[in-house]
Description:
Elements: E1 6-16, E2 21-31, H1 37-50, H2 53-56, E3 62-66, E4 78-82, E5 87-93, H3 98-107, E6 110-115, H4 120-131, E7 137-141, H5 146-151, E8 157-165, E9 168-173, E10 176-180, E11 183-184
Parallel strand pairs: 1-8, 5-6, 6-7
Antiparallel strand pairs: 1-2, 3-4, 4-5, 7-11, 8-9, 9-10
Amino acid sequence: MAIKSTIFKANLSIADIDHGYYADHALTLARHPSETDERMMVRLVALALQAHELNDTCGGDGTLAFGAGLSDPDDPDASLTDFTGRKRLWIEVGQPEDKPLSKACSQADAVIVYAFSSAADVWWKGIENKLTRLDRLQVWRLPTEAAPALAAMAERSMQLQALIQDGTITLSSTLGSVHIEPLRWK
Length: 186
């Protein structure tokens, strides 16, 4: 019998000063049995960092949601879809292969990868040349120490605040806060 995903609920208040975006999001995260708390929380941070696109790209008329992620390799970890069903933003976390990223770039207006583990630097050195032709792709590096700190904040029911200012994000809850400064690789 297959192990089912674990469901996490997050009430996320976003104050994105950089983009003038302020909103509350009631989110459901299904953590695949093979997914770690680190990866799940990085998905949440990635969604928070890109939430402003809901207004900037879709004029508020779109859906920002988590995808099937590890359950379905053809589905993003998170995405923004406009009212016509067009994928405006495809978000991946971790170290995806070049072929799925190329396919994602053909299916969405923009693709963003958030690499976060200690192996991310090795992954980037090996894949960087394969990704240069993908104009719709951005690759960001989250500090290695951020993921374990985020995992310590994971609870089945979370009340989180995300403050985005000067290109950095601070995610806070009653369990503490994590300050993350993403570095753009591509």
